[in-house]
Amino acid sequence: MKTTLFLTATTTLLILAGCGSEPHASAAKPLPPASVLTVAATLQEHGSVEILPGTVKAASAATLMARVPGVVGRINATPGTAVTAGTVLVQLDALEIAAKRDQAKAVAAQAAADFERAKLLVEKQALTKSEFDGAQARAAGSAAAAAEAEIMVGYTRITAPFAGVVVRKFAEVGDLLSPGRPVIELEDPASLRLEVEIPESLAAKFVIGTKLRVQIGAAAIDQEAAVVEVTPAADPVSRTVLAKLALPTDAKGLRSGQFGRVTIPVAGGSLLSVPATAVVQRGQLDAVFVVQDGKALLRLVRLGGTDGARTAIRAGLKTGEMVVVDGAESLSDAQPVTAR
Questions:
Q1: In 10 A of CB 335, how many CB atoms?
Q2: Which residues pair with 17 in a beta bridge?
């Protein structure tokens, strides 16, 4: 009886399992094989230039902060708004500051009137010299206090220090601001620079006025730019020197934060290199496709110099490895390939 019950239960479970199972999802469709042209990475006399990365930044940029406490009553600019110098960007509702200004002006007016009466009385010898000096001091002190209060009221208006474009805002209407809190970030798009960290060994190549080739893919810039600023001291941590190159003011699509490269002529040498067409970009990273066991494997590399036709590889590749030089841009990692 027990055996019969066991067999019946087992059979029922198998039937239920078979009925409840779903066919497995089909595997991802394999990548189609691609026909590519490959060459071996070789040691060659190379390194006539060095390529260094840089970042586009505005030469004129400012983060505007609140100088007095107050509630944001009005914001006259949003990111992307072009403004002129002196434009009021943020207005604070600071009634307490305005009230103190009015009080200081009233005190100053009364002190000024007292001083005028004191001058008349001292002429008639009806006022001592010390009393006259006291009235004069009170008039001067109250006038200075009124001027200071007027300046504090002026701080409730946050204005643009130069003509530019609002790139960020850090407050909204109704926010309570304390002194020192950032409110608006402003940049002058007509003063963009490519900032590059230069190794000490190459710092001598960067002299103000020297023209070097810069490339910024996002803005389609590939032209010479002049060095306009070089820091006189090296960073003690990175051992680099900061250099800035002036970028064209009429370039479309150029904006701060973009990635760029600068090409520096250096002495030649024997380095591992591949044809320039083998190098592909994945975001801001450089890579090549290495062919192994019939597949194209994406390999991140660190570039050295280039002479236009070939590019030096400082890390990530070994001599003799086969790299794709034609069709690499359209490949995916681990895609099957046939070399032609």
A1: 18
A2: none
